[in-house]
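From the shared-data thread, chain only:
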Amino acid sequence: MLHLRSGFESYTGVAATDTETSREVVVGLSAQSREQVDEQVDRAAVAGGQSLGPGMANGPMYMRGFRDLDGHQWSFLHLSS
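Structure, as tokens:
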């Protein structure tokens, strides 16, 4: 569910995080392939998000991230078997 800042603060009872100066969470989502990781991040960037650079491989894991329009950080990752 998406909220306006005022609605979110009313719902949670606390101030929303200032995404310019802090991160409250990094949301990681799995993908079925490296290609899907890149496709999802590219789509987010086209929609106005900010790509956080090229994908990174670490053993069987491939990951790439972006920030959404509100500055929240997301990543897609694929674990090969």
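The radius of gyration is 15 Å.
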